[in-house]
Amino acid sequence: MPRSVNAVASRARRKKVLKATRGYFGRGKNVWTVAKNKYEKGLQYAYRDRKAKKREFRSLWIQRINAGAREHGLSYSQFMGLLKKADIELNRKVLADLAMNHPEAFKAVVERVK
């Protein structure tokens, strides 16, 4: 009996990877072995950078809050400590947005905690 291979599934799997690697440089877009390696490495980067994105945004929010707080004579750590004491539960994302886009509202929060 001849050997049976599922060529349809194999081709579909390869097509899926080659479609995902469209736009890659050089052989990474059309040579199966190179494309497969680049595709898998790309998935690793995507997983890693989803985590890194959270760290980077938190860092950005802290910088923005710090800049806003210093305009009112407080450091970031002093401001966050006063927020906790005053039992105001605004997260860093909201505070950063207030500091950047709504300085009057941020000033009101600072005056409330002082």
Could you please describe the fold and organization of this structure?
The protein is mostly helical and 114 residues long. The protein has a single domain, classed as Orthogonal Bundle (c-terminal domain of poly(a) binding protein), CATH 1.10.1900.20. The protein contains 5 helices and no strands. Helix 1 runs parallel beside helix 2 and helix 2 crosses helix 4. The longest helix has 39 residues. It is rod-shaped and about 85 Å long. 13% of the residues are buried. The model has no long low-confidence stretch (mean pLDDT 96). Binds directly to 23S ribosomal RNA and is necessary for the in vitro assembly process of the 50S ribosomal subunit. It is not involved in the protein synthesizing functions of that subunit. Belongs to the bacterial ribosomal protein bL20 family. It comes from Algoriphagus kandeliae.
Summarize the structure.
With 114 residues, the chain is mostly helical.
